[in-house]
Amino acid sequence: MLTTPPDSRLPISPALRAQILVEALPFIRRFHGQILVVKLGGHAMEDPVARETVLQDLVLLRFVGLKPVLVHGGGHEITAMAGALGLDTKFVAGLRVTDEKTMEVAKMVLTGKITPDLVTAIHRLGGRAMGLSGEDGPTLLVRRQLGPQGEDLGFVGMVEEVNPEPVLALTERGLIPVMASVGLGYDGLSYNVNADTVAGALAEELGAAKLLLLTDVVGVQGKGGELLSRLSVERAEELLRDGMATEGMIPKLEAACTAARAGVAVHIIDGREPHSILLELLTEEGVGTMIDPVASTEGE
Hints:
Layout: H1 14-31, E1 35-40, H2 43-46, H3 48-63, E2 67-72, H4 75-84, E3 91-92, E4 95-96, H5 100-124, E5 129-133, E6 140-146, E7 152-162, H6 165-172, E8 176-180, E9 182-185, E10 190-192, H7 195-206, E11 210-215, E12 230-231, H8 233-241, H9 249-261, E13 265-270, H10 276-282, E14 289-291, H11 294-297
Parallel strand pairs: 1-2, 1-11, 2-8, 5-8, 6-9, 11-13, 12-14
Antiparallel strand pairs: 3-4, 6-7, 9-10, 13-14
Helix pairs in contact: 4-5, 7-9, 8-9
């Protein structure tokens, strides 16, 4: 369990602690029994303390009646392992160019190391979890994806079909599914799929109440670096067309728009902020950027 040095804690009275819990009650009631898809990446993946905090949030949410589903990538670990094996790393529009050897490394890192580590950590925190990848079931059927200018990205997949049954079977048993971003191609081969894309496709097919994409910035930012706390799908798509979204934010916004058009409320939040998931879900102010789902904005 995480511990905080005593001298860094602000004194909180028992009455204030109780008030905080009471204020969270309407949000817990609103989302009770609903699916929440969380994509773990960036600092929240790499820093052990930040990762543990995220997993604590998910275990807590599971115990109060939500059904979290965790999707993870592992870009830095894949890059490190590929480099150790003498393989070059190249990205196009935020997507890793994946040849056959790099695909083997990605699969080994994602399904052989990161997923089991996350499952073990969740169990240590008192939760129950089970790992799977898009190949299990199969949950994710994908086609080969090209770059924005028709570049050959190798074994990079775009999700075509989602089979929700393996994930739903786990959530109904009280488990937290932990999914690695590997998909099965129609050709029977393994494909590396961007984790944001996987999370968005899963959230859409599962009918999730929320999709939370953890990143290393405070949220989507405007031209002056200001936080854009709320965006319509149209505005988010405009940011993509205008080139204001760059590198890793491109697949995040693309996944966000896809899920939001299906009625999922999407939040892009700072994974470096302790307990940012709880702050987003269980407080009125929230944090980060929310992409309004079409289902709600059309009725305004």
